[in-house]
Hints:
A: Nucleotidyltransferase, domain 5, Dna Ligase, domain 1, 36 strands, 32% helix, B: 14 helices
Amino acid sequence: MQKQSVRLGVDIGGTFTDVVLERSDDLFSTKVLTTYSAPEEAIVEGMARVCAQAQIDPAQITQIIHGTTLATNALIERRGAKTALITTEGFRDVIEMRTESRFEQYDLNLTLLPPLLPRNFRYTLKERMQADGQVLKPINRAEIESLVNEIKQAGFESIAVGFLHSYVNDAHERLVADVVGEHMPGAMLSLSCEVSPQMREYERFNTTIANAYIKPLMKTYLDRLKGRLNGEGAVCPIFLMHSGGGIISLQNAAEFPVRLVESGPAGGAVFAAHIAARHRLDKVLSFDMGGTTAKICLIKDQTPKTARGFEVARSYRFKKGSGMPISIPVIDMVEIGAGGGSLAHVDSLRQIRVGPESAGSEPGPACYDRGGTRPAVTDADLVLGRLDPNNFAGGRITLNPEASSAALATHLGDTLDMESQTAAFGLCEVVDENMANAARVHAVENGENLSDYTMIAFGGAAPLHAGRLCEKLGISRLLVPTGAGVGSAIGFLRAPFSFEATRSQFMRLTDFRSDLATDLLGDLTQEATAFVSSCDAQAEIEAQYKVYMRYSGQGWEIPVPFDAALAQSPDAARFEALFEREYQTLFGRSVAGMDIEITVWSVNAATTAEAAQPLPPQPATQRLKAAHSRSLFDAASGQMTRAAQWRRAQMAIGAELDGPAVIEEEETTIIVPKSRCARAMSDGCIELTVRSTEKGAAQ
Amino acid sequence: MISPTTSRSTSEVQYQVMWNRLISVVEEQAQALVRTAFSTSVREAGDLSAGVYDAQGRMLAQAVTGTPGHVNAMADAVAHFMRRIGRENFAPGDIYITNDPWEGTGHLHDITIVTPSYYNETFVGFFACTAHIVDIGGRGFGADANSVYEEGLYIPIMKLADRGVVDQTLMRIIRGNVREPDQLVGDVYALASCNDIGHRRLVDMMEEFELVDLAGISQFILSNSRRATLERINALTPGLAQGAMRSDGYSHPVDLKVRLTIEQDRVLCDFAGTSGLDKKGINCPMVYTKAYACYALKCAIAPEIPNNAASLAPFEIMAPENTIVNALHPAPVALRHIIGHMVPDAVYAALDQLLPGLVPAEGAGCLCNFQVSLRPRSDAPAPPHAQRAEVLTFNSGGSGARPSLDGMNATAFPSGVMTMPVEATEQVGPVLIWRKELRPDSGGAGRHRGGLGQYMEVGAQEGYEFDIQAMFDRVNHPANGRQGGSSGGATTIALDDGTAMQGKGKQFVPHGKKVMMAFPGGGGYGPASERPTADILKDLAGGYITAEAAEKIYGLAPQQIADILARAKNGEAF
């Protein structure tokens, strides 16, 4: 008899470790404070709690899927291993010279993020490949041996190898791997041709070094976790969520730990994509707002948008360029420093600025009464009537509105000659506008128009701001799912096994080589598929194909997806037609008479997603009449109004009410602006749409 | 929405939201250009600008991009367009163009496109953008011209499109005069469509806030910016100081002289006494000098106030006609950045006396750019498929040490452009970059060390020879230290067989030879004797300074040096 499927999703975040257990249609969840020194302890504790809720034994769990910020934090806090780099002679300083630019133009006292490895940990060898893969300067085995011995003597725990143009010809990197294997058996090794085989040496080297740097730490952690869970009786396979939105085996995760960076937020996007699938929505903007940051992601055709790389550890107000590049396949998200704890101040232009500085949980916003005196987004939400002071976090924390008003008056109102409430309105408008701008820019960069999108909002602070964000973005439909507080962990349970293999290989369409393209795509398919079948040998695996293309002479490639038929028999004319269509969508026009080239090839292999269960039928709508009401500021009209007050639990399926309204639940509060009405859907989602009287007049 | 019934402070909140929105609009406008442009300098290096203007041509917001060189130039350019085209000739669907060095942004290689914005058939303002394009004909990008006539095609301020109809005669003239016509035409369209993107977003904003024109928001932005800038200036102690610096120039060394006055409500910067014109194309039109002088002052005095007509106005920059910083037509100006990038160091020489402890020591200044023109070897049979190729690279020396921080290694200042990856450069043409690495000992010694310059070695693939167009300064005049700091390392350039080469101009490199270059470091700040020992040891362990420098300049004992080097080799982090 087939064992009943019992799956555990675990997301280790900065503050909480979220654990969810799913047994057929039942979902149990809990939040445990993250245990920094031994993160597996919080997992064990959380597992015990959800097992007790479900009345099962850990031995009955059939699969554990884990995502963690440990890899990201190790990079941010520089807690990695003692790592050596071996690189091409003449290029020792690639990771230190970066792009040679300043990420902030007007700051004379700018400090750059120090490279991951100090200069004396970066070694060079005489060798050189040409851009087309020809060997310009052969490598000498004796020199490798002597260097490896020097590295061994110096006591390095991990080694990264990055040679110029190794994405075209990896022979020299492989030879170094051989020698290391011989002279330092068991040494942790990361080759740039395996970790990130893409052109652009700074990005590739830095990614490889990051992988090497966190590899010992992550391997130890993953081994310990497996042992600890086994000890508790959970002997099932453990899988890891990766930044591309899929899951990989524990072994692959230990080999390529850099792929675990930002896996938590990726889980959130997968969560939203799953809801999009249930609701049959092809255009979704996911909006995840927590205590310190907000993340925005475009989900098209129920698949989160992906990118070839991103930046971690931004050191300067989340500014582009102030972190370090990691080029791996990743869910493309915009992260901005806007959360419930984000602090506000008035700058020299008498403008209110919000974030990225955050009050965190200690001391927290002023209203927590734990010593915080500066106004945070939560303080403004409280003063505007969006939060109930006696019912915050399920009543566990009593908020003090006087403290919020005082903080708003002292830090904003007095300077700007505004009352506390207007200052609170200003603060919220600024933070909402920041998020809306980020969403708009992200949409435009992807050639999308948000007005035909649906927003899916989750995370503790999102439902408070999502309604206003929709007004600003002209989005007419918003869904707030259940389980929004543990969205990422639920997302882990919805993710397919997947692995994306990419390679840089220039090819002009006027000089297109069908044989080479066929071989390349074949190799990539095999590589990606092998990873996936190592997780699940039986599952059906689907390959998705993509090339990055541009006009010759441009520096910016655009992704062009294509089908299996074209992958089987690659053809220049069809690539050209696909490229021109994508280019027009993005930039409004194509350019005649220019050569077109392919720069990067990518194959993503994934198990076919379980078909999303269709939505249960929606019963007839039932208008709710408010029994309770309270004062609520309506941002669109800029004034206080009387708002109906509801508990989410009281809203039966089909219940409908008009804004302005407040819908409270354990972990968050949904604000229904005056322009919107809310309805409880058959799957538990609360749906906000434009009120009929507002239609036409709205936005 | 902003009606008389809206309370004053509520409308203030809305204006603030709109100001943020306009800044986001121009950033988006600039991003669109980066993504669609063909010119390397735009897409890789960020040499572009984008801005939005009110109906009077006053700049309301400008994208922060890789180049401060367009800062004021952009602010001024739209006024020239208004005067030349004439308000009565504006129409929806119009697009205007120029590359006039004096009414645009300083050389023929920058194309500026201005588009009037209409909302509900009413003219409400402009969008403008500028990009550095690959080629504009003439002698090609370099300093060798004797007048602007040799530097390429000149496009006076005119209509590129009249009510939506593109001037095909102009397009044919452009195509017929440049080396890469498809790319240039592609760039012109990219500029025009980035203005369109800005315009569409502006319309969205005006609809959302129910605006009929930009007068209210313009007034809000400009008055707040003016007030904030004046507050900053009036907090300074009034005074007057002179500053000077000398750089290589082309035909003769160039002296930049600055007389800086801080007064009530304004800062005056006068370049009287500066050298006259150079015979070759490193002369700088006033717009470009203003941009860099203003940029330097804003960084020091009011860094967080966004650029717009009001925040720039209190910084008044002047220079006598036909000095090298106010070159008039028809002076050659293609490489005006070589002088322009030195302007901030000259301004800081004066400002340091008025506001001590604020500005950095001199740095590498101008970017260390070069272009290589590769062709099949002429001294012996070349490979059958060898083709000509042009490769332009942007590189940086070290920045000057700061009053409380070291200078930045291989980091551009005042320019903010990016370098290109070596792997990408080598995909463009048969060039080989054999070395691109920090240059030890090139950071000027001091309590805070200057940023390190870099080594580059450049050759060609088998079967090719090439010309290198050098655009380097600081060969004879390295970056000076400040407050007792030492100078940074000077630029050097030679062939690998030792043959000497010039810092500027086009020079031939035979088959099989490499060009060996060392780019300058930044000056040090404060006496080297005051440098904390921990910093010296770190520099030594990382090889930022050699053992020799550690002993001779910083006075470390030979035994200690040997000990540190042994520990560094043994894998100790410092």
